[in-house]
Amino acid sequence: MSKNVNQTGSTGNTVGKVGSVQASWDHLGKRGDGPSRNLLEVKDLKVSYGGIEAVRGISFDVPEHEIVTLIGANGAGKSSTLRSIVALEKPAGGSIKFEGNEMIGMGTEQIVKNGITLVPEGRRVFVNLSVYENLRMGAYLRNDDLQSDLDWVYTLFPRLKERSWQAAGTLSGGEQQMLAIARALMSRPKMIMMDEPSLGLAPIIVQEVFEIIHEINKMGMTILLVEQNANMALKAADMGYVMETGRITLSGAGMELAENPVVKEAYLGKSRS
Fold this sequence. Notes:
Order of helices and strands: EEEHEEHEHHHHEHEHEEHH
Strand order of the largest sheet: 6-7-8-3-9-10
Structural class: alpha/beta
Number of helices: 10
Strand content: 15-25%
Low-confidence stretches: 1-24
Radius of gyration: 18 Å
Shape: globular
């Protein structure tokens, strides 16, 4: 992927050039390297806010090196699911296992050390810090040399290298989303979770975001994606789950769900034939 994109959408978001990644992370392995295993296993997960049950006993798996997506309307419980996996919300019940180890009861810092990272909804970059400082913040738990990974994310996002000393708050929405993804990658995760990465972005920038998702997945990164753009998400995903009012109501291969008449009508804006 060495596509030049230097256009501005209706929201004024620009990304600039998105580079081709030549490096690889040996710790990730690649799709097909040995028998498949579930990297993440969520069983009977419940999340409550006061007396309101946001997630009502859902179960799903995320196989290593694959893209899994959760789709559904606002309030379906998708973000609460991601936040509970990284201990930003305390589950009311169930089990969350990563590489066979129970995560419930661990703090966020330990979960990140174990290899899970989250790109939060709304990007949440540190607006008063530079691009470079934001990237360093993504690696705050690491004690090793960061230069090779800095070079790697700058190869993936050349525009960030050009603006490395620019305050993150002065970047466009699309550039901030790229920075949020790059910052998450700096923790050197085994699995990255993304919460609404296309939110508020112009269509051409959304396409760039999904190209990056494909690029890092090809390198072996396991991805759990929450996304309201169901069409893009299901086309990208190996496996998809439909959430409604805290429950999983449908599941299947991404492309199969994209062709499901119920999904088409409810989430893809297409009426049943």
